[in-house]
Amino acid sequence: MALHACNVEWQRGDQPFTDNRYSRAHRWRFDGGAVVAASSSPHSVRVPFSDPAAVDPEEALLAAVSSCHMLWFLSLAAQAGLVVDRYEDAAEAVLGDIGGGRHAITRVTLRPRLTFSGAQLPDDVQVEALHHAAHERCDIANSIRAEVRVEGSWQPAA
Known about the structure:
- It holds the Pfam family OsmC.
- This is OsmC family peroxiredoxin.
- The protein is of the alpha/beta class.
- It has helices spanning 57-79, 124-137, 139-143, and strands at 6-9, 26-30, 35-38, 83-89, 92-99, 102-110, 112-117, 147-150, 153-156.
- β5 and β6 (102-110) form a beta hairpin.
- The longest helix has 23 residues, at 57-79.
- It is elongated, with a radius of gyration of 19 Å.
């Protein structure tokens, strides 16, 4: 078992609070020293009480799913003797109503675009199998109840 941790930090400062007109901007601090500006989504809480330049929790969840999938895909491709030159994912998440006044990420769509080089290029079936295996191994995708879709593409290096 592995323990993963971060510190989430927010301070009110001199802003009013009980009128709900306080900044949702905060920081995520990770054990390796990375600090990420975070905030509620402007879709949830209007600007100026949200910081649209910061990462919101929904975006962070999406990035975690995409990153986990990518890392497994790269590992599995390397094990298969394939050379991946580039991996870029234009991922999207849908926040939907799940009843009772609650919302959830109801769908995650990954759209990885890959570039391969080397003597051994994959075919569509092999790339799809690698995506399937990566999805099966991704701890993040296995941790959420949202549907996670992978709609990838690839190309040989020029």
